[in-house]
Amino acid sequence: MTTSKKERMLHIIGQLEAVSNQLSLQTLTNLQQAKEKLHHLQEHEVEKLTDKVFSRPVHEQQIDLNSPENLLHSCYNELDRLSREEGTPSQLQEAVQEIRYYFSIEEQDGFFP
Fold first, then answer.
1. How does pLDDT run across 34-48, given as a tens digit for each residue?
2. What does the alpha-carbon distance between residue 79 and residue 73 come to, in Å, rounded to a whole number?
3. For the segment 50-95, what is each residue's pLDDT rounded down to a tens digit?
4. Which of 24, 27, 32, 40 is deepest in the core (most CB within 10 A)?
5. By C-alpha distance, which of 33, 1, 18, 37 is closest to 94?
6. What does the H/E/C string look like for the chain?
């Protein structure tokens, strides 16, 4: 059985909370907001928010920058930078790797976008 997107995001956030002493206040705030929103949403609501299927024309769409998925993605740059530093806990490196898998971020020429 596959893990739902809600469970995957909550797992990643849980891993990052374990190394919260290395994260900035903004990142911690974003992670906390994403976690709270995920707890308030049902599995099917999370799937609907993250399926990238739109039923309205482009000019009528609005991007919710405060959705749990966007909040988690907004933390990626800082987390990637921290994971490349020397002496980084393996838990942070694993969480960043899971974020890469979740958002399908691929390495190109040694750099991540």
1. 999 999 999 988 888
2. 10
3. 876 666 676 666 777 788 999 999 999 999 999 888 888 999 999 9
4. 27
5. 18
6. CCCCHHHHHHHHHHHHHCCHHHCCHHHHHHHHHHHHHHHHCCHHHHHHHHCCCCCCCHHHCCCCCCCHHHHHHHCHHHHHHHHHCCCCCHHHHHHHHHHHHHHCCCCECCECC
Single-letter code of the amino acid located at 50? T
> Is 110 a residue whose pLDDT tops 60?
no
Tokens 């990637």 correspond to what residue?
80
Place of tokens 């739902």: 4
Backbone dihedral region of 109: left (phi > 0), alpha (psi from -120 to 50 degrees) or beta?
Answer: left
Question: Global pTM?
Answer: 0.83
